[in-house]
């Protein structure tokens, strides 16, 4: 069974903290993505990566960075967490660009 | 031009009824139109997808209708069941492209 695993289901962090969200996939997919999900706004792309050590900005990259040191792992970093980054974060991977995406279960982050 | 507009935002249907969710797009380069289903506490998962060379695709109780000239596509859920209660996202992408554009989502509730 294919899997995308996010390291935490729930996180509570303080304003100004550096936050790491980890994602691992076991499908040998080249493409990986980070989205945030907010009610009424759907899924918005933060960053994506199409190869190891490669990264591209999505639609809302401000306040975030990413790291992809290994093919199976894609990390999202909030450099200095703010309350407006309270959201559901979803990691996804895909075999083909523009094709079916496989999602993790999500991390609900609350910044207080 | 990159947007995918989805309606309605929420939908309540009686058990056994037909649920209809609509999406519209502008970018004529899109050639892959998936629908994702998300249950509470889970990440989205691919439900059904269509390419613009066909006008309809059916999988069990789920049907996508596609109108290329109108740049619209819709999801029909026949004989809706309480277990179909979930959030549904339409999406669009270009094969080989990096981004998938998601609609804002529709929360479906099927009353028993």
Can you offer a commentary on this structure?
The complex is a heterodimer of chains A (112) and B (112). With 112 residues, chain A is mainly β. Chain A contains no helices and 11 strands. In chain A, strands 2, 4, 5, 6, 9, 10 and 11 form a 7-stranded mixed beta sheet that branches. Chain A has a 4-stranded antiparallel beta sheet with strand order 1-3-8-7, with no helix packed on it. In chain A, strand 5 and strand 6 (56-57) form a beta hairpin. The N and C termini of chain A lie far apart (36 Å). The mean pLDDT of chain A is 95. With 112 residues, chain B is mainly β. Chain B is built from no helices and 11 strands. In chain B, the strands form 2 sheets. In chain B, strands 2, 4, 5, 9, 10 and 11 form a 6-stranded mixed beta sheet that branches. Chain B has a 5-stranded antiparallel beta sheet with strand order 1-3-8-7-6, with no helix packed on it. Chain B is globular and about 40 Å long. The A-B interface holds A 4, 31, 35, 40-45, 48, 50, 56, 58, 90, 92, 96-106 and B 6, 9, 32, 34, 36, 41-46, 49, 89, 93-100, 102-105.
- The secondary-structure element order of chain A is EEEEEEEEEEE
How many beta-strand elements of chain A?
11
Arithmetic mean of pLDDT of chain A: 95
Number of strands of chain B: 11
Structural class of chain B: mainly beta
Largest β sheet strand count, sense and barrel closure of chain B: 6 strands, mixed
Computed over alpha carbons, the radius of gyration of chain B is 13 Å
Question: Could you list the spans of chain A in which at least 5 consecutive residues all have pLDDT below 50?
Answer: none
Distance between the termini of chain B: 40 Å
Rg of chain A, Cα atoms, Å: 13 Å
Mean pLDDT of chain B: 95
